[in-house]
Amino acid sequence: MAFTADEALTFLRKAKANDRLSHAYLVTGREGSGTREVAVGLTGILVGETVAPLKHPDVHVAEPESKSRRITIDQVRALERELQMHSLRGGRKVVLIFDADRLVEQAANAFLKTLEEPPRNSHIILVSSLPDQLLETILSRCIEVPLKPGPRRGLTGRQQKLAEFLRRHASLERPDMAQTFCLVREFQALLAEAKADITGETEGAFKAEEKRYKEASGVSAEWIDDREDYFKALAEARYRNERGVLVDTLEFWWADILRQQHRAAHLDLPDFSTVTGDLANRLPTSQVLKRAAAIGGLRENFGRNVHEQLAVEVAFLDAFA
Fold first, then answer.
1. Cα 200 → chain centroid
2. Is the four-CA dihedral 185, 303, 32, 228 of positive or negative sign?
3. Domain range enclosing 112
4. Sequence-distant (≥ 6) Cβ neighbours of residue 78 within 8 angstroms
5. N or C end: fewer C-beta atoms under 10 angstroms in the chain?
6. Any idea what DSSP says for residue 21?
7. Do 119 and 165 have their domain in common?
8. Which of 120, 146, 172 is the last residue of a domain?
């Protein structure tokens, strides 16, 4: 059973009150479902800190930091060392891993023993929007807290552009490879636009911080390098999120077509109901399912670090040609 973020935290507070907290949790849900909120809230429940639990000295956090956006074995070893130390405040210790699906295989395997038998009064919280990318041995050692999708917001500007591109493509009676590659280029242009915007914002934030700290005394060049790496990782994380939002739009498109075939009342893209309804009449359900699966495969390939351009081309040829 999936929970809202509030329901999940209520459930976890009751578990603590009844002294039934697990040593390992996996918080799962799509972007916008509140996975980070629940993980941070659970951390606060465990260490008794509700204001800023991630700043508690007995809370240790890891998330993708390298340029490859992976969680390395060195990060995992550092977490394990922290768990072996005495609690600084005499209470529980918590390890929190965001984007746990980004653990490299060597790091994931190394973490299994600790995950199965963490030190006394220690808890591990994993967070993932792609739990199917985790090792089965990790999944089996955690209590999953699945979250319901968050409330649907209006389309972003780039989502609106993509939906318009899809509308135009759908007007073609039998789109050939060249016409489908035109749609590919439009999608890639949206990705490039997103990357440029995000990179500009994060580089600007880093330069402002660099200037401020260079004017202060006692700031090492190594510290500035670390901050530069942080902002690069932040830019990559934000880009992956924006890319995921655009993939959401592609999934909405095919889901609406399938819903129209089954006379469902709810549509994710109601402003495009005429064109998705026309496609629902033109395509057999087996074709809709096959094309929707191609978009699901695109999301999975993005999660596996498959070459982005190749992944897009293959998925779009299967879904739109």
1. 22
2. negative
3. 5-146
4. 60, 62
5. N
6. -
7. no
8. 146
List C-alpha distances in Å: 238 to 53, 191, 194, 232, 242. Answer: 23, 12, 9, 10, 6
Q: Are 171 and 312 contained in the same domain?
A: yes
Cα 60 from Cα 53, distance rounded (Å): 10
Under 8 Å between Cβ of 276 and 269: yes
Alpha carbons 244 and 235: distance in angstroms, whole number: 14
CATH classification of the domain holding 42: 3.40.50.300
- Residues 106 and 164 grouped into a single domain: no
Q: What's the total number of domains in the chain?
A: 2
Separation of alpha carbons 176 and 260, rounded Å:
25
Place of tokens 């609106």: 160
204 within some domain: yes
Looking at residue 72, its amino acid is: T
Whether 151 is covered by a domain: the verdict is: no
Global confidence as pTM? 0.59
CA–CA dist 249, 160 (Å, integer): 9
Asked whether 42 and 15 are in contact (CB, 8 A), the reply is no
**Is residue 305 domain-shared with residue 167, that is, in the same domain?**
yes
Reading the chain (321 residues) residue by residue, the pLDDT tens digits are 788 999 999 999 999 999 999 999 999 998 778 899 999 999 999 999 877 898 899 999 988 875 567 888 888 999 999 998 888 888 999 999 999 988 888 888 888 988 988 888 999 999 998 888 888 899 999 999 999 876 666 788 999 999 999 999 999 888 888 999 999 999 999 999 999 999 998 888 888 777 777 766 556 677 677 777 777 877 887 888 889 889 989 999 999 999 999 998 888 899 999 999 999 999 999 999 999 999 999 988 887 778 999 999 999 999 998
Contact 303, 101 (CB under 8 A): yes
CA distance 17 to 162: 48
3-state secondary structure of 61: strand
Domain co-membership, 23 together with 171: no
